[in-house]
UniProtKB/TrEMBL annotation:
<keyword id="KW-0028">Amino-acid biosynthesis</keyword>
<dbReference type="GO" id="GO:0000162">
    <property type="term" value="P:L-tryptophan biosynthetic process"/>
</dbReference>
<feature type="binding site">
    <location>
        <position position="227"/>
    </location>
    <ligand>
        <name>Mg(2+) 2</name>
    </ligand>
</feature>
<feature type="binding site">
    <location>
        <position position="113"/>
    </location>
    <ligand>
        <name>anthranilate 1</name>
    </ligand>
</feature>
<dbReference type="InterPro" id="IPR000312">
    <property type="entry name" value="Glycosyl_Trfase_fam3"/>
</dbReference>
<protein>
    <recommendedName>
        <fullName>Anthranilate phosphoribosyltransferase</fullName>
        <ecNumber>2.4.2.18</ecNumber>
    </recommendedName>
</protein>
<comment type="similarity">
    <text>In the C-terminal section; belongs to the anthranilate phosphoribosyltransferase family.</text>
</comment>
<dbReference type="InterPro" id="IPR005940">
    <property type="entry name" value="Anthranilate_Pribosyl_Tfrase"/>
</dbReference>
<dbReference type="Pfam" id="PF02885">
    <property type="entry name" value="Glycos_trans_3N"/>
</dbReference>
<feature type="binding site">
    <location>
        <begin position="85"/>
        <end position="86"/>
    </location>
    <ligand>
        <name>5-phospho-alpha-D-ribose 1-diphosphate</name>
    </ligand>
</feature>
<keyword id="KW-0057">Aromatic amino acid biosynthesis</keyword>
<dbReference type="GO" id="GO:0000287">
    <property type="term" value="F:magnesium ion binding"/>
</dbReference>
<keyword id="KW-0328">Glycosyltransferase</keyword>
<feature type="binding site">
    <location>
        <position position="226"/>
    </location>
    <ligand>
        <name>Mg(2+) 2</name>
    </ligand>
</feature>
<feature type="binding site">
    <location>
        <begin position="92"/>
        <end position="95"/>
    </location>
    <ligand>
        <name>5-phospho-alpha-D-ribose 1-diphosphate</name>
    </ligand>
</feature>
<feature type="binding site">
    <location>
        <position position="122"/>
    </location>
    <ligand>
        <name>5-phospho-alpha-D-ribose 1-diphosphate</name>
    </ligand>
</feature>
<feature type="binding site">
    <location>
        <position position="94"/>
    </location>
    <ligand>
        <name>Mg(2+) 1</name>
    </ligand>
</feature>
Length: 347
């Protein structure tokens, strides 16, 4: 079937859902550099205004992966990342959880970028911590094998996505493109723990993982965070065996006290990196509780066993706590820095 921009945009403006083929075609045109700025903006805003369907999101993801530099990693690994967009300016909870998970002996392939809606994105804080982001793509797997964790810097593995950047910057509002990152990890991990600030998009993202046959938790704090929060309860969409089940997680059921939003607030990369070091160093705080919750979810997703949500997260938290208290998380961070410094090109 031959698609055209007038056909696709007319359908969206009329609030008609597109099929996988139509959205895949549109994304292919964008990533190939064939779409104009007006076409990209019109598509992004019309799709967001109508409201995305699972088929439309699948088409975008399929096209993104076709244009990506994919990564083949040994064994079962997990990704831990949030979509951003919650505007809460928290510390880098998922980044800390990734290191803690790796310290628990679980391979982590984290996919991320610089800050978009926060003062300190994943890449920004890792750089301050001494982790080099410019390790060649050909050696990313070696980093994983030597340290238990590696980072796929999105611009390196998804270079074609650059065609969307000027339009997204000028629009200044979230679009469907903001939710693609966690779904297009170049390693396509078998397990994921994904935070999504948008309550409507979270179950769609879970549906993508279910179609893929992955094990995952997609979650949204009831305070709006793209994390499992410590300020209130969190809605969780569990993905196991190709099905999605929605549940509710209360940190008090896991022996944690509720905290204030200010207790999770972050700042510039240097500030967040200091919090990062203190948490993996064993400091007790509400941030530690948030890190344990999110690492616990990542570990539970990686384990991939059935059972009550709270029990599986609790088992994951026990391993995450041991990772910190034994010093394994701090050693993982140090080793990761050393190896990436060794493998990155001279400055």
């Amino acid at each position: 079937m031959t698609h055209t921009w007038p056909e696709v945009l007319t359908g969206l403006v009329a609030r008609r859902d597109l099929d996988v083929s139509s959205t895949s075609w549109a994304m292919d045109e964008i990533l190939s550099g064939n779409a104009t700025a007006a076409q990209i903006a019109g598509f992004a805003m019309a799709l967001r205004s109508k409201g995305e369907t699972l088929a439309e999101l699948q088409g975008l993801v399929d096209s993104m992966l076709q244009h990506a530099t994919l990564l083949s990693v040994p064994g079962r690994v997990v990704d831990i990342v949030g979509t951003g967009g919650d505007m809460a300016k928290t510390v880098n909870i998922s980044s800390m959880a990734a290191v803690v998970t790796a310290g628990a002996g679980i391979g982590v392939v984290k996919h991320g970028n610089r800050a978009a809606s926060s003062a300190s994105g994943t890449a920004d804080v890792f750089e301050v911590l001494g982790v080099r982001l410019d390790v060649p793509a050909s050696r990313i797997v070696e980093v994983l094998e030597r340290t238990g964790i590696t980072f796929c810097f999105a611009p390196v593995f998804h270079p074609s996505f650059r065609h969307t950047a000027p339009v997204r910057r000028e629009l200044g509002v979230p679009t469907t493109f903001n939710f693609l990152g966690p779904l297009v990890n170049p390693a396509q991990p078998a397990a994921s723990a994904i935070g999504c600030a948008d309550v409507r998009m979270a179950p769609l993202m879970a549906g993508i993982f279910a179609e893929r046959g992955a094990d995952a938790f997609v979650f949204r704090g009831d305070d709006g965070l793209d994390e499992i929060t410590t300020t209130t309860t969190t809605r969780v969409w569990e993905v196991f065996g190709g099905t999605v089940t929605e549940g509710l997680l209360d940190p008090r059921e896991l022996g944690m006290s509720l905290s204030s939003a200010d207790a999770l607030r972050g700042g510039e990369p240097v500030y967040n990196a200091d919090v990062f070091r203190r948490v993996v160093g064993g400091e007790v705080s509400p941030v530690r509780d948030a890190v344990l919750l999110n690492a616990g979810a990542a570990i539970a997703a990686h384990t991939g066993t059935a059972g009550a949500l709270v029990d599986r997260i609790a088992a994951g938290i026990a391993r995450a706590r041991e990772s910190i208290d034994s010093g394994a998380a701090a050693r993982t961070l140090e080793q990761w820095s050393v190896v990436t410094q060794e493998l990155a090109p001279p400055r």
